[in-house]
Amino acid sequence: MNLQGKNILVTGGVQGIGRAIVDHLHAAGATLLVTDIQAEGGADLVQALGERVQYFNADVRANNSLEEALAWLSSNNLQLHCAVNNAGVEHAPKPLLECTEKDWDNTIDINLKGVFFCMQQQVKAMLASGGHIINMASVAGIRSAPSLSPYAASKHGVVGLTRSVAVEYARAQIRVNAVCPGIIKTDMMARAFEHMPEHTQKALVNSHPLRRLGTPAEVAQMVGWLCSDESSFITGQCFTIDGGMTA
What is the reported pTM? Predict the structure, then answer.
C-alpha cells in the first residue's frame, strides 16, 4: 500500500489502536499529524518515527482541538487528505442502574461529542478539495453491549454521525466511513477485563467465532486501506473487524 503524498490526521494516536494506525500509515509513506493528551508519549512517538510526523497536544472535548494541527497544514500549503477520529475512552462495566452521571458525561463527551467537534473542523478543512474521514466506532455501536450502556450509546452515535455526514457532504467529495472493531487486545480492554470474573472474560473471547481477540495491527490495516485510493467509491459505511462476532 502506497500512501506517499497523503497528509493524514489521527486523534488519540499515542497508544493502543491509535498508535498501531500511526505506525501503519507512516510505514506506507503518509505524513502524519497526531493529536493526543499525552505530551510525553507524543514526544516519544516523534522521536521513534522521525520524519513525516507532527505531534499536537489536543483534547477532543474542545470545539477547536484541531486548530493547531490544521494551522500547521495551512502554513505549509498542505491539504488534509484523510482524518482518523480514534480518540476514545472506556468505563468500567456495570449495569444501567449503577452507572453514574460522570460515567455518562465523560464517555459521551470524548467518544461522541469529541468526534462531532473534530468532524466539524475536518469537513471545513476539506470543503475546497474533498477528503476522507474515518471514525472509530465499535461493534458496540451496531449491536447490544450489556453493562456498557454509556459506551454503547456513544458508539451508536458515532455510527449515526458517520452515515449522516457522509450523505450531507458527498457532493463535496468528502467521504465518511466508520470502523467497528470487536474486542481488541489493548490496554483499554485489559482495564475492562480487570472488572470481570474469569468466566466472563472467556465468554467474551469466545463470542468471536475465531476464538481469539483481535490485534491493533489488524484494525490498522483496515484503516490503511480506507485511507488509500483503493476505497475511493466507499462512503457512509461501517466496517466490522470482529472475528465473526456479528455474523
Answer: 0.94
